[in-house]
Recover the amino acids of this structure.
């Protein structure tokens, strides 16, 4: 039987999508991302669903891309170690998926605990609201790896330009309380209360008229797009690809292979102990 990495359930007008790869800190293989996209589509198409929750089993929300699981197609084809091949994989899984999830015409809430590193941001940021456990941290340390930021560049919009530059330049972890202060997180709750608090918020939102919810979400997203969000994300994705081109020209190896040596550093706890 094929292993699945996503749990999906609907109850009281709320669809709950759960990342279920806790033994790997919910690191993302191509198969996991494809399953996740299918779950988002299922929730979007279900007229009984009014609100979507994205959560994760285990200690961590997501440690980002699985270094050994994003190098080839999900059908087992060999890796495409060319810039064209990397671009093809990332444009679909790391950009197109995130933009589609962002624009699902139903409110969505991410429940984040533990680490949310680089590719993990591509899962949380497309959600309309983020509830963070008090042990949650957010980071995008890929400048340490010779690339300018993760593929879906929400940084500037999520935390403002100066804080975005600080996080990218240093690679440090932002704790949940700082994320709340800069507006990236809506609420911080004790870890033990994360799912209950997220469910309560989803239940409250689900009592509202679905047409009004859709229009409210559309209004905010379109306001951001008029300000340049969509065009910026698309153009910065192309800038991101120059990092892969640089790695290939310097070493003959793609960034994804060079990342393998960074795992221990990324797994270290933040300096404030959260």
């Amino acid at each position: 039987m094929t292993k699945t990495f996503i749990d999906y359930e609907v109850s009281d007008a709320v669809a709950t999508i759960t990342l279920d790869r806790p033994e790997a800190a919910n690191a993302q293989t191509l198969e996991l991302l494809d399953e996740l996209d299918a779950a988002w589509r299922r929730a979007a198409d279900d007229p009984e669903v009014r609100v979507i929750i994205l959560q994760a089993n285990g200690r961590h929300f997501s440690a980002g891309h699985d270094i050994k699981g994003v190098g080839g197609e999900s059908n087992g084809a060999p890796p495409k170690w060319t810039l064209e091949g990397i671009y093809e994989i990332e444009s679909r899984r790391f950009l197109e998926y995130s933009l589609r999830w962002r624009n699902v015409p139903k409110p969505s809430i991410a429940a984040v605990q533990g680490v949310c590193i680089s590719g993990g941001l591509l899962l949380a940021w497309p959600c309309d609201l983020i509830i963070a456990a008090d042990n949650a941290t957010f980071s995008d340390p890929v400048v340490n790896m010779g690339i300018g930021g993760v593929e879906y560049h929400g940084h500037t919009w999520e935390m403002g330009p100066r804080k975005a530059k600080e996080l990218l330049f240093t690679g440090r972890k932002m704790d949940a309380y700082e994320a709340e202060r800069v507006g990236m997180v809506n609420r911080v709750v004790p870890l033990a209360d994360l799912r209950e608090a997220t469910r309560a918020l989803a239940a409250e939102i689900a009592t509202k008229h679905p047409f009004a919810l859709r229009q409210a979400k559309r209004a905010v997203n379109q306001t951001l797009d008029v300000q340049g969000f969509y065009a910026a994300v698309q153009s910065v994705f192309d800038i991101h690809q120059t990092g892969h081109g640089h790695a290939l020209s310097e070493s003959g190896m793609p960034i994804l292979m060079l990342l393998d040596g960074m795992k221990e550093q990324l797994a270290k706890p933040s300096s404030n102990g959260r």
